[in-house]
Design a protein that fits this description.
alpha/beta, five-stranded parallel beta sheet, 7 strands
């Protein structure tokens, strides 16, 4: 089962079918083993899998009483989030279409940790799976200002968070783990 972001009228029915899901946060270019690990746990838990992409170029303007979220772009000339979501949908379809599992994709907006937490609450998710960030000075600076999504999820809600390494591990004798 695949779909894109549901309409407000379809979302309640879809949420009911996705209760106790495993949620995996995916970004374009992320190594495929992050999604593979989420799939493995969804099968082990006999749960649906929800593949989410968080569009950080948009922000929530208001939320309807029925839960439908209205948003606006940070930059009116930017629609990168839609293209990224298409990439995530394609990646998910290639990896999951032949699997015997109920799955869907969702695009969330705003702060990744808060958006994933809110969806996990809505679906009463069993597990959240997220990949580590890339190593490098640029990512270190970004994390300094925004914080680690995995750490923020682990400290701000009660569900288990599985953090999957994106790259090879850093050798024990390497002093600076952020070197590229």
């Amino acid at each position: 089962m695949t779909d894109s972001t549901p309409t407000a009228s379809d979302e309640a029915a879809q949420n009911a079918a996705l209760q106790k899901a495993v949620i995996v946060g995916i970004q374009p270019g992320q190594p495929p083993h992050v999604l593979a690990e989420a799939l493995r746990y969804a099968k082990l838990l006999e749960s649906p899998l929800v593949v989410v992409h968080v569009d950080v170029t948009r922000f929530v303007t208001y939320e309807d009483p029925d839960g439908y979220v209205h948003s606006a772009p940070i930059d009116l000339n930017l629609d990168a989030g839609a293209a990224e979501f298409e990439d995530v949908q394609k990646m998910a379809a290639e990896a999951l279409d032949k699997e015997d599992i109920t799955w869907t994709t969702r695009q969330l907006i705003g702060d990744p940790a808060l958006a994933i937490k809110q969806l996990a609450n809505t679906l009463d998710a069993q597990l959240i799976v997220i990949g580590t960030r890339k190593r490098g000075i640029g990512e270190s600076i970004r994390e300094f200002f925004t914080g680690s999504v995995a750490a923020r999820l682990a400290h701000r809600q009660h569900r288990s968070v599985l953090v999957v390494p994106q790259t090879e591990s850093v050798p024990d004798d390497q002093k600076d783990v952020w070197d590229e």
